[in-house]
Amino acid sequence: MTSTATTLEYTAGDTLCNGVYFVPEKANGLLPVVLVVHAWDGLNQEVRDKATKLAEAGYIAFAVDVHGGGKTISDIAELLPTLTPYLEDRNLLLQRMQGALAAAKMIPGADTSRIGAMGYCFGGMAVLDLARAGGDELKAAVTFHAGLEGNTLDTPATLNVKILVLHGEDDPMVPPAIVAAFKQEMNAKKVDWQLHSYSQTVHAFTRPDANDPAFGAVYNLSADRRSWQAMLNFFTEVI
Question: Looking at the domain 3-238, which fold is it?
Answer without folding.
Answer: Rossmann fold (3.40.50)
